[in-house]
Amino acid sequence: MQTEESTSDQIQQQQQQQQQQQQQQTTQVTLDETIGRIVSGQFTHAQNLKTLSRLTTQQLTSYTADRLDPLTVINPTNHSLAYLYFITARCLEATENNGLQLFQMLHHFVQVFEIEQVQLASARFAIIGKALLHLAQVMQKPLLPLQTFKLAIVRFSNNNPHELTSLHAPFLQACILAKAYRFPLEILSKDIEIIDPKKHNIQIQGFLEYFYYGAIVYIGNKRYHDALESLAIVLSAPIQKAISAIQIAAYKKFVLVSLIADGYLRTLPRYTAQGVEKVCRIHATAYLNLAKAFADTNTKQFKDLVTKTRVFEEEGQMGLVKQCFEALRRKKIKALTEVYVTVGLEEMAKKIGNVTADELELILIDMVGKG
């Protein structure tokens, strides 16, 4: 039988072994050691991932003791996992001077990386989105990363257009910043059917951002009904503790786009979580006041609200507000023409207000053309 003393010794030895293992795990590895392990090919990708994840940003952006750039030592295909860590760290620190060279290296990596390796580090792969946005900003070339984004999405999703990746949202953000509203329509046209948080490191924030940015892209293409569908998805998404700021922003756009597309404030989907609309309405008082003026066909009140309330300009909504006013003016013209069929343009313009007879004629011609 084991004595209490021998049992105690065994427990103590086990504790010491655990402490030694913890110390080994937390011991800082050198850059040269890391490169040596990776190039040797003697370790598994999973083992290399543990080593790479312990490197600091300073190490990932440094040279070896022999003054060699790790990106010239490791291969973007054979050592995709390591290359991913080093290239993303470098790109996030890029400046105007070295931005183009780093972008070219990142683009090449996106073309040749080995999918099985990078899938082991989905959180790190997501940083490619931030890296591309940063490169576009420092080089002041907003169009530059769009093709790279698109290729990265296609390759990382194994060419499955119905799978949401961590790069979808930043890709749409990049398109919006570049005002390239038509460029992402091919990707947006594919319904999202697969959402794998573990595989693509996607949280609820990324899901909301994708459909919110998607709505902005649709608005830029004047596809208002598609925009409303995307905004409805944002607003009806499951919430855990509190409503997201993105949902509040989506509701404000939902109000304005509803007025443009439908001529009235569309109701939210029945499956929208309780309290979402209530909280959103509290934060969108100015927008709901506009909707009321629109419903009352009151152009003067609408213009007064826009003039006296700075919130629309501060929140970057003036473009949609102006389109709402045009929709309101057309609504009023249509209502008056049904009542005053024989009234001339001059008198009609006076009844409508804020429009000349010449402007009214052009509006009427456009309305007839659109049916």
Blueprint (SSEs and pairs):
Elements: H1 4-26, H2 31-40, H3 45-53, H4 57-60, H5 70-73, H6 80-92, H7 99-112, H8 115-118, H9 122-139, H10 146-156, H11 168-177, H12 185-188, H13 197-200, H14 204-220, H15 224-236, H16 245-261, H17 276-283, H18 285-295, H19 299-308, H20 311-314, H21 318-339, H22 345-352, H23 357-369
Note down, in words, how this protein is organized:
The protein is mainly alpha-helical and 371 residues long. The chain is 68% helix and 0% strand. It contains 23 helices and no strands. The N and C termini lie far apart (97 Å). About 2% of the residues have low confidence.
Task: Give a concise summary.
The chain has 23 helices and no strands. With 371 residues, it is mostly helical. The longest helix is centred in the first third of the chain and has 23 residues.
Please report which band the strand proportion falls in: under 5%, 5-15%, 15-25%, 25-35%, 35-45% or over 45%. under 5%
Largest sheet, in brief, is: none
Mean pLDDT: 88
End-to-end gap: 97 Å
| Topology order in helix (H) and strand (E) letters | HHHHHHHHHHHHHHHHHHHHHHH
User: How many helix segments?
Assistant: 23
Helix and strand composition category? mainly alpha
